[in-house]
Design the sequence.
């Protein structure tokens, strides 16, 4: 049932809030609830909440026990990532414009101000986080770092849109290579067990994400294989890890994994946690990719075969690209889960933001109080990351037109 | 036109039949090799540390005290795991029921034509869905349930609800006399209700009169229960909780750990179920609703008879998945000391139970729970599946 779009605010309210008597009652009840909740929330954030616990320990939430004299490494890494991100955005925008021009469809001709406003609306959770973080700091350095990041994004965006097309390939390979350069750079002489806070979360999530994808792909192919032995192994692996809770696996990585390796070969806690997250996520990725493979019409593979392609080419050039395009949103969803699940290292005492949030309340100054403030701040860090990813994934889903083609 | 039959085989290194066997043999050999290597390491490590790999520890005393349970520390690890399993099942069942109710309500609110209600439901879903469950569990435990007032100034709502640091008390049934008789009556009433419903369906199929299967079935069930209740002299009564000096009498008291875990699991899972409900209702083709309108069905009939049955078919597998997740997520109790399976295992390992067999038992129990639950979901799914020819 389509409605006429009402022109005035009163008209809009009449349609959307006071359509009939029942609607009016609902509006008043819900409105009262919203007012009460909103008032209490605002009062907590700005009046009764005592945020000193976050202010004092901000560094712990963000980078744990990472040595302060090495923090410049983090700053450099963050700015490099910002620059590459900006450049990619620029390249994509330029290519889209070129494609639109070639096809004769209208190009994106929004003015710069409008573009910035649209971008701000799009990434408002990130901006909120930056504002919160800067409000909690007292020195000038974080503000300078934030400005440098913004500048890096802007420079990247302008350069990316300007340089010749043949440089693009570098920047499509870079995001994959970057972790292999940045991780050793960040670890430097320290070792991974020094990582903590939000940095640890990002490390665990990024490494497990990158490693679980190929493993999951192999498992999915194994599960679809015509060879019974391969299929059995893949099914057993996938179903086992999907049937058990991740917490138990994380606990095992600490308390039982040591038994499965010679003592000399046993890696540190962080690496063991990475292995567990990777294997667990791979089992879920495998099921998602399998769904994608099943969604590709059989005729596609058969047609490729009829053209004389070798089996691995049929898979790699024809079936997989279509399958993966169909499952990008589901994969992003799985990686959001992974991002949130990294908090489970709480149970083995690694210093991720949640562990920090719990531990700082035991400091003498806070004497087991301010739990709410501390936990809400840690939760905000995760909420911003995961909400941003989920919004971007929905955008991507609309753009790819999954399910509509 | 047929190709000339050849008897010549390709060389062995290009013969698919050989290659398949060879490839599988190599993969199996590698996997077995890794497995044997790991097993060998376990045995070596077990020998050097003197920690056994057998299940003998199950009969040792557990040294575990579970709050709110009369398990003695001298009882065996086996008994402690039994208590843990019971607690896992308890929180999972309560969570599944409550999360479904809350999730469906939120999903429907999300689709409301009322802008404010729909936006409020959306805000709930987007906040809860994007926060780590562990953060919710810890928050709900230390920032909500452990901050409740002492029993003397507990928050009470009549004799329905008492919230204090000792836990949350709600009314609960109480059985006087034989609980076996009560169980028998309930089974009898269920059977009567089912028979009545079947009778109405037969009548409907034979004559075309309206069936009212659910109304008649539920009414029959209620009549049998009420008659039995009167005839047996009210063996089942509802008891409300009341503060009785330093303790709570009547009703049932949920410990803070249980209540905190349940609240976190329910609010989190409900946000996922709400999205599933919304998605499935929106996935029902628009033409179905329009056709129902054309047949002059009322809005509620449209929902009940046309949209929901089709939405259910889409929603059930996904919601079943959420039930599985909720059950597995109950293991997060390990962070707040609610003694379910994982907590019991982790404490008993702390009390010198050997780690490898303990975790093996734990994993096996979770696999069995997952299998049992997914079997139930599959049955439900098959009942709803479209019968295609």
Sequence:
């Amino acid at each position: 049932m389509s409605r006429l779009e009402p022109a005035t605010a009163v008209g809009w309210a009449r349609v959307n809030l006071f359509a009939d008597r029942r609607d009016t009652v609902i509006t008043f009840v819900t409105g009262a609830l919203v007012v009460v909740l909103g008032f209490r929330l605002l009062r907590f954030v700005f009046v009764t909440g005592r945020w000193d616990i976050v202010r004092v320990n901000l560094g712990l939430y963000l980078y744990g026990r990472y040595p302060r004299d090495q923090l410049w490494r983090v700053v450099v890494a963050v700015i490099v990532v910002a620059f590459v991100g900006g450049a990619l955005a620029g390249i994509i925008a330029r290519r889209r414009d070129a494609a639109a021009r070639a096809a004769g469809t209208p190009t994106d001709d929004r003015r710069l101000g409008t573009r910035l406003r649209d971008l701000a609306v799009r990434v408002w959770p990130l901006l909120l986080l930056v504002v919160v973080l800067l409000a909690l700091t007292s020195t000038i350095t974080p503000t300078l770092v934030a400005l440098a990041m913004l500048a890096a994004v802007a420079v990247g965006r302008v350069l990316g849109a300007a340089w010749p097309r043949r440089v693009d390939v570098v920047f499509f390979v870079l995001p994959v290579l970057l972790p292999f350069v940045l991780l050793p750079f960040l670890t430097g002489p320290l070792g991974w067990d020094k990582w903590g806070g939000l940095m640890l979360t990002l490390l665990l999530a990024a490494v497990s994400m990158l490693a679980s994808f190929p493993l999951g792909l192999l498992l999915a192919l194994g599960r679809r294989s015509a060879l019974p032995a391969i299929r059995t192994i893949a099914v057993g692996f996938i179903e086992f890890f999907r049937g058990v809770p991740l917490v138990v696996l994380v606990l095992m990585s600490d308390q039982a994994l040591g038994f499965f390796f010679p003592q000399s070969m046993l890696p540190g806690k962080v690496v063991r946690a990475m292995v567990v997250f990777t294997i667990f996520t791979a089992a879920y990725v495998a099921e998602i990719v399998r769904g994608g493979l099943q969604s590709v019409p059989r005729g596609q593979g058969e047609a490729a075969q009829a053209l004389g392609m070798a089996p691995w080419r049929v898979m790699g050039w024809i079936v997989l690209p279509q399958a993966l395009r169909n499952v990008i949103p589901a994969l992003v969803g799985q990686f959001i889960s992974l991002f949130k699940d990294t908090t489970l290292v709480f149970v083995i005492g690694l210093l991720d933001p949640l562990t920090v949030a719990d531990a700082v309340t035991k400091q003498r100054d806070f004497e087991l109080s301010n739990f709410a403030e501390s936990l809400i701040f840690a939760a905000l860090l995760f909420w911003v990351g995961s909400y941003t990813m989920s919004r971007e994934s929905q955008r991507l889903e609309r753009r790819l037109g999954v399910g509509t083609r | 036109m047929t190709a000339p039959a050849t008897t010549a085989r390709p060389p062995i290194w290009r013969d698919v039949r050989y290659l398949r066997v060879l490839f599988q043999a190599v993969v199996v050999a590698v996997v077995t090799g890794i497995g044997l290597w790991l097993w060998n390491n376990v045995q070596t490590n077990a020998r050097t540390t003197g920690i056994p790999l057998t299940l003998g520890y199950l009969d040792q005393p557990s040294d575990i005290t579970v709050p709110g349970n009369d398990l003695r520390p001298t009882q065996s690890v086996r008994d402690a795991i039994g208590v843990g399993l019971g607690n896992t099942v308890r929180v999972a069942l309560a969570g599944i029921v409550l999360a479904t109710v809350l999730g469906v309500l939120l999903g429907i609110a999300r689709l409301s034509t009322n802008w404010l209600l729909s936006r409020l439901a959306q805000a709930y879903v987007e906040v809860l869905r994007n926060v780590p469950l562990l953060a919710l569990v810890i928050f709900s435990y230390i920032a909500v349930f452990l901050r409740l007032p002492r029993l003397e100034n507990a928050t009470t709502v009549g004799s329905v609800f008492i919230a204090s640091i000792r836990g949350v008390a709600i009314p609960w049934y109480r059985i006087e006399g034989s609980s076996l008789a009560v169980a028998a009556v309930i089974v009898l009433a269920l059977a009567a209700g089912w028979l009545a419903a079947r009778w109405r369906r037969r009548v409907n199929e034979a004559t075309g009169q309206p069936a009212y299967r659910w109304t008649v079935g539920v009414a029959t069930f209620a009549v049998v229960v009420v008659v039995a209740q009167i005839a047996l002299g009210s063996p089942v009564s509802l008891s409300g909780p009341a503060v009785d000096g330093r303790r709570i009498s009547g009703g049932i008291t949920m410990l803070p750990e249980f209540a905190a875990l349940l609240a976190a699991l329910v609010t989190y899972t409900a946000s996922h179920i709400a999205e599933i409900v919304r998605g499935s209702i929106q996935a029902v083709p628009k033409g179905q609703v329009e056709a129902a309108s054309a047949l002059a069905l009322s809005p509620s009939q449209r929902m009940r008879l046309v949209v929901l049955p089709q939405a259910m078919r889409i929603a059930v597998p996904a919601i079943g998945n959420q039930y599985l997740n909720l059950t597995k997520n109950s293991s997060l109790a390990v962070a707040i000391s609610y003694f379910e399976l994982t907590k019991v295992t982790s404490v008993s390992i702390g009390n010198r139970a050997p780690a490898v067999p303990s975790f093996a038992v734990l994993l096996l129990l979770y696999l069995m729970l997952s299998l049992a639950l997914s079997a139930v979901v599959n049955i439900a799914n098959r009942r709803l599946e479209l019968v295609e020819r």
In short: The radius of gyration of chain B is 28 Å. Chain B touches chain A through 54 residues (CB under 8 Å). The CA atoms of residues 313 and 384 of chain B lie 6 Å apart. The longest strand of chain B covers residues 161-164.
